[in-house]
Amino acid sequence: MRATSSVIVGRDAEIRLLDEALESVGKGAGRAVFLVGEAGIGKSRLAGESALRAYDRDMPVLRGRATSTGLVVPFRPLVEALSSRFRAAGAPDDPELQPYRPALAGLVPEWRAGTVAPGYAISLVELAEALLRLLAVLGRERGCVILLEDLHDSDTETIAVVEYVVDNVAELPVLLVGTLRPDPGPALDLALAAELRNTASVRELGPLDEAAVRDMAAACLDVGPGEVPPAAHRHLWQWACGNPYLVEVLLADLLDTGRLSRADGGWQLAEHGEATVPTGAVRSWARRLDRLDEPVRELLLVAATLGGRFSVGALRAVTGLDDRALFAHLRSASEVGIIAPDGAAHDHYTFRHVLTADALRASLPPAEQAALARRAASAIEESAGELSGDQRQLMATLRLAAGDKVAASRQFAQVGRQMLDAGASGSAAVLLERARGLAADEERDEVTVQLAIAQAESGRLDEAAALLDDLPPAPAGSRAAEERAQAHTQVAWVATMAEQQEEARRRIRAARALLGIAPRPEQEAALAVVEGHLALLPERDGGGEGRGPVDRGGEDGRERLEEEERSARWAALTAEQRGRPVVACQAWQLLAMLSRERGFDEADACLERMLAVAEEHRLAVYRAEALVRLGTNAFMRTGEATRLETARTAAHELGSLALLQSVDGLLAMQSVLGGRWDRARGIVERSVEASARLQNLSTHRYLLLVDATLAAHQGRAREQERALVRFRRAGGEESMLVPLQRGLCQAVGALMGEDRERAKAELDAALAWEREHPSFFYLSGRYGLGPLLRILDGEDAGREAYQEALASPGGQLAWNRMFLGMADAVLRGRDGDPEGARRAVEQAGRAATVFPQAWHLALRLTAEAALADSWGEPVAWLRTAEEYFHEAGVLPVAGACRAALRQAGAGAPQRRGGRERIPAGLRTAGVTPREYEVFVLLAERPGNQQIAQSLCISPRTVEKHMASLMSKTGSADRSALCALSAASADTPT
């Protein structure tokens, strides 16, 4: 007879916590709750109760469980959780999820076909971000709940994804509930660390007290607490130790044996002298087995040997039963509550509780356990043919139970290598660690090498280094030495990408020592590529503090770069000849960076070769990388984004969220320069926070800079400064983006405020930085805007800067060609060549077709020189620029254009309209458009002279407007009026 409680007892505080979390999620504030306790303590019952309460609120519920069989199955709880929802409701078809479908394809079977390019392993952070977006979409209306049970049995990849979700769920309508045992391990570490960070609540479930045990027994017997026989209560309290599962098991045993029975309208416990109850559930289960038919008993013992979860196919192979008998026995075992069909897989069953399988196995003597495990392993091996990864792990577990450690080691190692090849480096490390501990002496070193690679690719470089350093010596040039050298090279690459330079150099030295004085060409090529990328990183001293990038401006620096380039070219050609396409792609990518200084044609040729190699060998990652770099170069050369859009498609097909965000950052900057400000803002808003969560820091910084540049080009100084604060906090001023920050953002922003001296100071700062830290950015103003301003101001260095820019690859870029063309026009007009100046303006205009804002700025700047030297059409240029900037809301530039028109004796448009731009409160107070122009500038607390210069009016006129504004707004003084302006600037109109 089954004895289960229909209610939860003794857990009122935990239920209140879960109710509060559900209420919070329904309001859009996410929560994470971890329930910690020993096996059988009631964690799953509470998780199920939270699911029922979520269903009552019409919330979607996703529920998954880690395997308790000891198998390492990446993402199993997550796959099961999503399947539990989508089997019934179908996978969501929300457009917001489109970029994330490739990353989710590994978890959602419906999205697997053709979504992820072959050869690309989705990173854990990409997958975690995609899961977060999916949960947010599912919970958009009422919130959603994801329940992940038995996290202590989870793979390392699942733990990493759960940690990411927990840390980022607060602003989303998602409740994550996880259950785990209090055993030391990654799951418990995650829960406790999240509690310390205040990103999760942890509740440790203790045993039920004596009263709760009585209440539970009453619920199982469907009577009141006072009707439970005192002797039965004492029996359960003594032997179950407050564990709800054991209460039910022991109560079922009392009922099955007839010791507890109904008599005279109530329950009575028959006294049998001294109690025969076991200290655990083992003897109880042994007695229950004895009461089952022999075939059912044998089937359950085999199933328990296979683990807490088992497949029908494996059970059939070991028992030899036909389907009719097999399923009949399975039904019998299900009817008595020992096993149940596994909802996550139609051909699997699971024991009702993990303790059940343990107790059944323990009911057999050790020798019989080993014999049964040996028999099961042999039967599965003979019937399975080519073993899957799960089957190999099961085989390893069975061989280990049978006492054959070496055979178990080989199976674990084989699965570990397969997982490493598939990109599941965390799970690979777990399995290879197991294999290493069981391996024969002569096989341990080979497993250790593979384990070191897995640890490195999992981000555990210290562990990888320790493993490699502990290996015994191997003769240089031997097979063992070559395998170790390859491992050192791979770890060196990982260290280089992580900017751990000293570790990378140590691995390179170790690899060279193992390869001897004459490594094979392909081995030397792989090392040369790592060394080339390493050489481009900033040097660091022994204490780990950066000394800044290597100075490549001097003779020694140029010679070093030339040597690196020769080495990279040799490595690329050698790798192609020797069948090492990955190394070849890495080398061509390095060459494209190094050859930019000689021109973009040469850089593009390297990237085209990289693309060809990647496509020939179906290297999807490197194909997408090549397309992104080619698209970037094309955008810089022409201002067009066609190839960038192609690269974005490739990144989406690949499933790389990090690469997709990188392309989106470039597209956002292209939109800023092209005056498509709404599109730029949309991209930034969509990607900037996601890039931070992905820890895609370089792209995150770039997007923050795009945000600041967008504000600068619109003349919104306060928004620009706020964005730059975020950029600095993200380490932007310690990155290679400083020239763009100074030149493309802050200098242009100064010009939008008609502050030319500050613009020149920013350009000078960018130039000084580039001279000390040569970079691969060419839109900093050094090759276009800077020379134009110097020439306009009549500086002696203007012509030299112009000639230097004209001769450089940066001078050939569309953005820079426009400014250099106008500089050429100014010089020709100044030298008495008006026709040449006119042609130069026309040529610059052709280069500027995709940059309307920059072109009108160039017209405004150049018109003053044209007026002074009597060439061109400066009045028409000023009118065109004035209309553009007035419509764009950049009032200082529009005002400067009107002032220049008046000084030229030409009619200037009267801009007394624009009342629609004035906030309603100020408009009601009678503030005029011109007064509002003054009011907007007051947010920065300028002096009257600065306001006058910005609006091209007299300081006396400014004083009149100030007095009128204070009167109309009721401001007590100038300071109060400035504060009101700042507050108005922070409030959207």
Mean pLDDT: 85
Give the neighbour order of strands across the main sheet.
Answer: 2-3-4-1-5
Q: Please count the beta strands (DSSP E, at least 2 residues each).
A: 10
Q: Count every helix, treating DSSP H or I runs of 4 or more residues as helices.
A: 47
Structural class: mainly alpha
Outline type: flat
Strand content: under 5%
Helix percent band: 55-70%
The biggest sheet amounts to: 5 strands, parallel
Description:
With about 1000 residues, the protein is mainly alpha-helical. The protein is built from 47 helices and ten strands. A hairpin with a 2-residue loop joins strand 6 and strand 7 (about 265-270). The radius of gyration is 36 Å and the shape is flat. The two termini are about 70 Å apart. About 50% of the residues are buried.
Task: From the structure above, extract its key features.
10 strands; five-stranded parallel sheet; 989 residues; mainly alpha
Chain-wise SSE layout:
Layout: H1 12-26, E1 31-36, H2 43-56, E2 61-65, H3 76-89, H4 101-104, H5 124-138, E3 144-149, H6 156-168, E4 174-180, H7 186-196, E5 201-204, H8 210-221, H9 230-240, H10 244-257, E6 260-263, E7 266-269, H11 282-290, H12 294-306, E8 309-311, H13 312-319, H14 323-335, E9 339-341, E10 348-351, H15 354-362, H16 366-384, H17 389-401, H18 405-421, H19 425-438, H20 441-457, H21 461-469, H22 479-497, H23 501-515, H24 521-535, H25 555-577, H26 581-594, H27 600-616, H28 620-638, H29 642-654, H30 657-673, H31 677-693, H32 697-713, H33 717-729, H34 738-752, H35 756-772, H36 785-792, H37 797-807, H38 814-830, H39 834-847, H40 852-869, H41 874-888, H42 891-903, H43 920-924, H44 929-937, H45 944-951, H46 955-969, H47 974-986
Parallel strand pairs: 1-4, 1-5, 2-3, 3-4
Antiparallel strand pairs: 6-7, 8-10, 9-10
Helix pairs in contact: 1-2, 5-6, 6-7, 8-10, 9-10, 10-11, 11-15, 12-13, 12-14, 12-15, 13-16, 16-17, 17-18, 18-19, 18-20, 19-20, 20-21, 20-22, 21-22, 22-23, 22-24, 23-24, 24-25, 24-26, 25-26, 26-27, 27-28, 28-29, 28-30, 29-30, 30-31, 30-32, 31-32, 32-33, 32-34, 34-35, 35-36, 36-37, 36-38, 37-38, ...
